[in-house]
Amino acid sequence: MKLCIPTLGTGGLEDLVSEHFGRAPTFTVVNMADNEVNVVKNTGEHFGGVGNTPDLVAAAGAEVLLCSGLGPRAINAFEQLGIEVYVGARGTVQDTIRAFQAGELIEASDATACKEHRH
Fold it and tell me: CA-to-CA distance for 45 and 64, rounded, in angstroms?
């Protein structure tokens, strides 16, 4: 299973989780099968680039997105891509993975979506 976490830099497992999904400078993708870690630069339109950020996450091979929070449009986009989304991530990538494995993150839905991200 490949996990994707929006991050602030290129620090891999020690990098901090970005609090804003669409504006995260990078996405850290961790393959849980072999512990391979890849950092993907956010080139999506929310970060001044081109394209839809959920499509970028899908192209990185992610099956699950673990983030602090995100808006309902992004949640819907991930549902259509078949990518599960969990919210409540904080701390480092490694902290987030531990929280996910412990069942401490919440599955994203309209009820858990960031309302201020409606745009």
Answer: 21
